[in-house]
């Protein structure tokens, strides 16, 4: 009898914890399942649809880790489909339809034509890269917003669509796929996106007044406003001493470029003045 009771006691000591732990495991499993269902952050189904329409290169040219991350940003309204160069126009249109937007076609230009006409602060002898030069007193140019022409954009462009001409980066529109990678790496942010229908643009980014600009660059915009005053369609306004185009109004008449005393209003795709 005593031995039997001892055996039963030992059995209970083994079985009871197992039963209790199993019961707790079942309870916690049910709680986790309920909580995961109740508090789950549901993935927007459109993300997978958009991802399937992207080029799938995962090149990172859009500024995101990959196509899935870019698709998520598109759905959240944090990115624009035009940022993906490799994706076809047809698929971009389909993506825009899914998102309820209109596909935006863009071009990339360099809003600076200074080059040799812009005064140098010092003779840079270090690693030949704009990003590196920027770390040393804000870059080589006396103009705080001037293109340094050291080619960071050139080395980052996957299409070899950018060359340095007379110390300034120039975008070859026939090669550019509008991935915007160059914009992301430009330390001065002189590379900018414009609507596809843009014909003229301002090749200066210095918001200073006329005298301030002339002290650092002979090719800079002096903010005289002649372009805005003479534009027959009212497509130009002056903001922070710089002309700003409304391309929905611009008729590409070219009067602004003809009136500009600094010749800093250029035609897209033409040689720099």
TrEMBL record:
Protein name, as recorded: Ion-translocating oxidoreductase complex subunit B
Compartments in which it is found: Cell membrane
Protein's job: Part of a membrane-bound complex that couples electron transfer with translocation of ions across the membrane.
Domain of life where this protein originates: Bacteria
Gene Ontology biological-process annotations: electron transport chain
CDD domains recorded: MtMvhB_like
Cofactor: [4Fe-4S] cluster
Signal peptide as annotated in the record: none
Family stated for the protein in its record: Belongs to the 4Fe4S bacterial-type ferredoxin family. RnfB subfamily.
Assembly: The complex is composed of six subunits: RnfA, RnfB, RnfC, RnfD, RnfE and RnfG.
Domain (4Fe-4S ferredoxin-type) ranges: 167-196, 212-240, 241-271
Cellular component GO terms held in the UniProt record: plasma membrane
GO molecular function, one term: metal ion binding
Keyword hit for 4Fe-4S: yes
Keywords linked to the UniProt accession: 4Fe-4S, Cell membrane, Electron transport, Iron, Iron-sulfur, Membrane, Metal-binding, Repeat, Translocase, Transport
Annotated source species: Candidatus Stercoripulliclostridium merdigallinarum
Stretches assigned to the 4Fe-4S domain: 42-101
Region (Hydrophobic): 1-36
Positions of [4Fe-4S] cluster 1 binding: 59, 62, 67, 84
Binding positions for [4Fe-4S] cluster 2 per the UniProt entry: 143, 147, 153, 186
Documented EC number(s): 7.-.-.-
Comment on bound cofactor: Binds 3 [4Fe-4S] clusters.
Entry keyword annotation includes Iron: yes
